[in-house]
Specification:
Elements: H1 9-19, E1 25-30, H2 37-45, E2 49-54, H3 61-76, H4 88-100, E3 109-114, H5 116-119, H6 126-136, E4 144-150, H7 153-161, E5 173-176, H8 182-191, H9 198-208, H10 212-215, H11 224-233, H12 242-250, H13 257-265, H14 274-281, H15 287-298, E6 302-309, E7 312-319, H16 322-331, H17 339-342, H18 346-362, H19 364-370, E8 378-384, E9 389-396, E10 400-407, H20 417-434, E11 439-446, H21 454-459, E12 460-464
Parallel strand pairs: 1-4, 1-5, 2-3, 3-4, 6-8, 10-11, 11-12
Antiparallel strand pairs: 6-7, 8-9, 9-10
Helix pairs in contact: 3-4, 4-6, 7-15, 9-11, 9-16
């Protein structure tokens, strides 16, 4: 079966445009581990790659240089080995010599350096040598695409994309690869021959997210429960140690990354502010804390978002990566247990409500499309006061505010008089507290929607089901 690139339409369009450009291109690709960065580049460019090598994790400069030369020998096909370079300037000079043997044509040729941050160890001189390689040689040609790729997102942003030295304003394209959406996840599984109902797929997504490598391990014919049990809880499960492996490969052990994740996992529902997070960790503000927080944001592990209490604005943080949250809530605490039993407990049912809310925030554009307001600018936030809490407010520029009630349930919801009064109270509390003159509508976003009756008809302007997320 020929391999395909599922989804990634925007990314593929960017890569296609580079093939037609009039100049050489320098592309930075980043995103969390296992998300499919390497696969995207290798499969899209295939026979256009004239040199590639991958950095070694936790290895010194000499090992990295040896790895580089071995790959250069492999691509150049030279029977007599290239000499061992003394440093990265020598190494890139060997690469230049190889590239000069390849005739310059209109067709683009690709150089791919994967796990770029791993190579740039302290005092290695790698980054400055690469800057020189790009500026002194690649930029003088018109037929090269140099792709640098890394899972350490904060490094890629700070040292490459926002570089103020030799690579300042040299990056011609940036691709931040995100997890698959629900729609892309469904498309990916169908490509693999896995047919799964939307509700089952949603439960699976809430546990492992849209991470391509994790989805590769899903088998046809299994339910979400049996799949999660096999991947996360059975002896020797594929994802049993994944959380620790990912964090050890990306971040220093003496940093605050995992401590921040633990603190956020203990404050799931509403998210917490930066100051509350520092209080939770019993630390003061520092560069080490700020860098760790920024690392997690850039890597997509946590989310920073706006919330209001009455008219007072706050910036909150919450875990954004489904697998990380699932690990901290269940895998870490219940090793050796069976998911076929755990999933029936109330703690999981409550947790589903929280994660479903996060997934709705991720798919806000799909929701706005279902509400027929995706072409209208809006501010999206959470809101609460002492008497009411609103899961999602879509404050539109056309004079309308939509208050979204988000519910995860295994069947259609039935609204009654009590629910009607609660929703009306939320509308009133919001109107009075914000003093808004806009029209206020209430929307229900749930798995299977609400049954049509006198109460739902009296309050709901929209009754959106999980189908909108797909």
């Amino acid at each position: 079966m020929n391999k395909e690139i599922i989804g990634r339409s925007e990314e593929k369009q960017k890569l296609s445009d580079m093939l037609l450009s009039h100049r050489s291109e320098l592309v930075a690709v980043y995103g969390r581990r296992r998300i499919g960065k390497t696969y995207l580049i290798r499969e899209f460019f295939k026979d256009k790659i004239i040199f590639s090598f991958t950095g070694l994790c936790n290895e010194n400069k000499n090992k990295q240089l040896k790895n580089f030369v071995l790959k250069l020998n492999e691509f150049s096909g030279i029977k007599t080995r290239n000499p061992n370079p003394n440093d990265w300037l020598d190494a890139f000079n060997l690469l230049k010599i190889h590239l000069k043997t390849i005739k310059e044509t209109k067709k683009k040729k690709v150089i791919f350096i994967d796990e770029f941050p791993w190579i740039d160890s302290q005092k290695s001189g790698f980054l400055s040598a690469f800057e020189n390689f790009w500026n002194d040689y690649c930029a003088t040609r018109t037929d090269l695409i140099v792709v640098i790729c890394g899972s350490a997102a904060s490094y890629m942003v700070k040292k490459i994309i926002r570089n103020v030295h030799g690579l300042s304003k040299r990056i011609t394209q940036t691709i931040k690869l995100m997890p698959f959406t629900l729609s892309e996840t469904r498309e990916f599984l169908r490509y693999k021959g896995v047919k799964m109902e939307e509700y089952e797929l949603l439960k699976l997504y809430m546990s492992i997210g849209g991470i391509a490598e994790y989805l590769e391990h899903i088998k046809p014919g299994e339910s979400a429960v049996t799949t999660i049990d096999r991947l996360c809880f059975q002896s020797g499960a594929y994802l049993e140690n994944e959380y620790d492996d990912v964090f050890k490969s990306l971040f220093d052990e003496n940093s605050y990354h995992q401590k921040i994740m633990n603190a956020l996992a203990n404050n799931k529902k509403e998210g917490i502010t930066r100051n509350e997070l520092m209080n939770e960790l019993s630390i003061g503000s520092s560069g080490k804390f700020s860098n760790s927080l920024e690392d997690l944001l850039q890597s997509g592990f946590i989310l920073k978002y706006e919330a209001y209490k009455n008219s007072k604005k706050a910036t909150l943080y919450r875990i954004y990566d489904e697998f990380c949250l699932f690990h901290l809530q269940f895998i870490q605490k219940h090793k050796g247990a069976s998911w076929t039993t755990l999933f029936q407990q109330q703690v999981y049912i409550t947790w589903c409500g929280y994660v479903f809310e996060t997934i709705c925030l991720k798919h806000i554009q799909q929701l706005k499309k279902a509400l027929k307001c995706d072409q209208i600018a809006s501010t999206n936030y959470q809101w609460r006061n002492e008497n009411a809490q609103i899961d999602l407010v879509i404050d539109r520029n056309d004079g309308v505010v939509t208050l979204c009630e988000i519910k995860f349930y295994n069947d259609e919801l039935t609204l009654d008089e009590t629910t009607l009064n609660q929703l009306r109270k939320k509308e009133n509390e919001f109107r009075v507290a914000t003093n808004t003159r806009k029209s206020i509508y209430t929307c229900l976003i749930s798995t299977f929607g609400a049954k049509s009756n006198q109460y739902s008809n009296a309050i709901l302007s929209n009754n959106v089901t999980m189908k909108a997320l797909f």
